[in-house]
Each structure stands twice: as C-alpha cells, then as structure tokens.
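Hey, I'm writing a tutorial for new members on how sequence and structure tokens pair up, and I'd like a real worked example in the thread rather than a made-up one. If someone can provide the structure for the chain below, I'll link this post from the tutorial.
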Amino acid sequence: MNRWHGTTWAPRISRFAGVLALAAATAGFAGARDSAFGQSPRSLAPGVLTVIPPSPLPAETYTGPMALPELAANAADLNWTPNYLAKTETLGELSRRVVLRRPIWNLEFAFKPLRMVEVDLPQPSGKLQKKLVWYMVYRIRYFPNDLKPTPKRDPFGNETFPSTTAGESNPTPRFFPHFVFTSVDVNKSYLDQIIPSAKGPIEDREAPGVPLYNAIEITNIAVPVARDTDDLGVWGYVTWTDIDPRVNFFSIHVRGLTNAYQFEDAQGLFKAGDAPRTGRTFRSKTLQLNFWRPGDSVFQHEGEIRFGVPIESEPAEQAERLTHYEGMTERLDYQWIYR
C-alpha cells in the first residue's frame, strides 16, 4: 500500500494542509494590516491608478481688464481732466480697467476604481444598521509647476506679465477637498460624508502601505513637493451612503486641487455703501470625473462601475449619452470646469 495515498496518511495530510492554509491566510492578513499601517508601501499593478495631470492655464493668472464696482460706485470725485497728464492716467479712469493678477498652484489627482463596502453604521436609535458605502481611494501629489505672472518690460517700454513656471511658489500646499457625487438622471447630488466606522474595512481591503486620511484629516497634512514620478504622495478616501440605486450615469466633482477661480459681478447690483463683493459670484476650478454603471437598482455591485462616458456607434446615440452629464458637449472621461 502506498502510504501517501492510503487510509493511514490521508487524514494526517489533510489536517496538516489545513494548518498550512490557515497559517498562510493569517500571514497574508497580517501582512495587509502591516502594509495598511505604512510599514511596507504597496506597489500597484499598472492601470489600477488613474492619474489626472494638472492643467494650469496662463489665463488663470489674471482677471480683467474690468471695472471694479467697489471703485466705480464711489469714484464721482475722481473724474477730472488733468492739465499735464492724459486723462486715462487718472484714478477714475484706471478704476475702469483694473487687472487682478495672482500665482496659480495645482495638485495632481490620482484615484483607484470606485468601490463599495458594507458597513454597520450607528443609527439615532442606538442600534447598528448595515449600509452600502460607496468609496474612492485617491492620491494627491504636488509638482512644482505653478504659474506666476512676472512683470517684464518689452522693447517699447511697456510692462507685460508673461506667465512663467514659478517652481515652488507654494512649498507646502494643503488639500481642502470638496467632493460632490452628482447624477443628472435622478436629479440628485450627494456631498461626501465622514464615516469613521468605514475606515477600518477600507484600509484592510486597500492596504496602500501609507496612511489613509478622510476629508477632514487630510486638511492637516502639508503635501510635500514631489521630486519624481515614484513619489508616494498623500493618500485619502472619500465616502458616500444612501446613493439612489437607480443611478446609471453620474459624475464626481472634485474641488480643492487648484486655487484657480473666476468671478462675475452682476450689473448694477452694487451700490455706494454696500459691503465689498456684493453681487459678486465666484466659481472654483473643479475636476469632473464621469462614470456610468450598466446595472440595475436591485443588486448594486462595484464591478458594474465604469470610468468615462460610454461609447456609442451612432452619433445621435452618442449625443443623447452626453445629456446624462453636466455641461458635456463632447465625449470626455474627465474635464476641468468652473463650478
């Protein structure tokens, strides 16, 4: 009798194999926990992380020429005709063509696939309720590619402000995130939520090898300057609950990746004596990530979530798909907008 396959050794081998399997599983879990606490940074497979590079534009470094209503409403005494200067050099005329300039910094945003996890969440009644949590793990890095308008004289003596790369104009930027989950289909928007009980399950599953911060914790971290593409950066996660199960097409808007902004003054709204900025509307430069989910409302599963806008063979069908996303005029996986 072959003792390795007979009745004498088989039960012992089975028990021994079970012990080895349990030990391997325990070691793997411990390794994941050690990695989650930053002892061994995890190397991600190619394609797991989607990187959105910054998109600084020279036009973002200035606003104008424009008339500031705060000056125009109180400039009655400034309108006069000088004897020895051009009238365009008076304060009243200069207030009608003000140019506001500023340096612009940007952060690189990268994210892992949007996922789901079930978590027991405490309720007002004091009991726990199992809920489905949508979450995204992301990375922030700061490369010295800031734009700064630097005054320069042209050959004719005119002062110009070419936008040049300023390097580290903001050596320790911080990320103050603002994530909004938006679905045009169901006409609903969801702000990100702080869910402390979700952090453990997310860390155990993702195990990035670096600390994971929620939307509040990450504001306390100064993002270091990245010197090369292997820089680890700062990692965070964002969570949502109670997402409408009917959602098929949606976008995630990310604000806080740059200090670029636009503003507009309502005509005639500002009056003398009003507080500064009365009637002024600000819009921040925002990253819009587009997704779609070819699933149903009965069984929600993360494997159904796709990044980007679906591709249709017929132009009419492709145009119809764009109506499911905010402000889309062409098929783009992501875009920078002012919102």
